[in-house]
Amino acid sequence: MTADDAHSSEANDGFSINLDIHVPHSARMYDYYLGGVTNFPADREAAGRALAVFPYARAAARANRAFMHRSVRFLAQRGIDQFLDIGTGIPTSPNLHEVAQGVNPAARIVYADNDPIVLTHAEALLRSTPEGRTAYVQGDVREPEKVLTGAREVLDFSRPVGLSMNALLHFIADKPDRTAADLAEVFKSHLSPGSSLAISHFTPDFAAAEAQRLVQVYQSSGTDLQARTLAEVAALFDGWDLVEPGIVSTPRWRPNPESDGDPVTDAESSCYAGVAFRR
């Protein structure tokens, strides 16, 4: 549904949801790239400007989604049965919990996002198996303690947790008092040995001119966007052990041609991806 006329609504759990429909939001633009309808005119206008300078945006979103599916399945098969997904975005089935619980029905998942519209769709994120559990935290990666406090109500941080930061940290511009790496490190520091970290991140390394123009479009729409090089993305994993094939473009991370859909090139994805474990 498209809620062009909506300004606010009330969630079942008592949250008051205020939607500023006149300001584009990255989660709703991402939904538009994926062919969703949970977006507003401002989101579609900004997404249209983005597609004009970066025509690969739809392919990049699709490749990122496929990476999420493959990485979660890989981690669940490796024994990770708790996941914290930050920057969840608008639900698009199969969601992370569906993939994880498809491997282990007892898996527990906490979703977190800062877009109020995601809360209005949280019911789709809470359809857990009877054996497992899912929960949603309205929170921002820039406020780690709030997200972690909510996550601790469901997840046992004395045991391994799979931290997912897919297509998230490129929306954090580095500042003198706080960088994306700083925020990642806060979350990593709370996780026990055996935990995992999955990241996908926008990069200028494959299509520099198009990437720069895309950054300008997002910034002109009021959204921070910082493309990072391979070395800068690698720094987000500092201290953790990357699994093969290391940090590669999203379609090259353990591809599965049977489920990935149409092939996506490095330039079209313009995103790095990697998965690592804490020793």
Q: Care to describe what's here?
A:
The chain is of the alpha/beta class and 279 residues long. The protein contains twelve helices and ten strands. Strands 3, 4, 5, 6, 7, 8, 9 and 10 form an eight-stranded mixed β-sheet that branches. The longest helix is centred in the first third of the chain and has 21 residues, at 57-77. Mean pLDDT is 92; it is low at 1-16.
Topology:
Blueprint: E1 8-10, E2 16-18, H1 26-33, H2 41-53, H3 57-77, E3 82-86, H4 96-103, E4 108-113, H5 116-120, H6 122-125, E5 133-138, H7 144-152, E6 162-166, H8 180-189, E7 196-202, H9 208-220, H10 230-235, E8 241-242, E9 248-249, H11 257-260, H12 266-269, E10 271-277
Helix pairs in contact: 1-2, 2-9, 3-4
Can you give keywords for this protein?
279 residues; alpha/beta; 12 helices; 10 strands; 38% helix
Instruction: State the major sheet.
Output: 8 strands, mixed
> Which class of secondary structure composition applies to the elements?
alpha/beta
Helix-strand pattern: EEHHHEHEHHEHEHEHHEEHHE
Per DSSP, the total helix count is 12
CA gyration radius, whole angstroms: 18 Å
Low-confidence stretches: 1-16
| Intertermini distance | 44 Å
Q: How many β-strand stretches?
A: 10
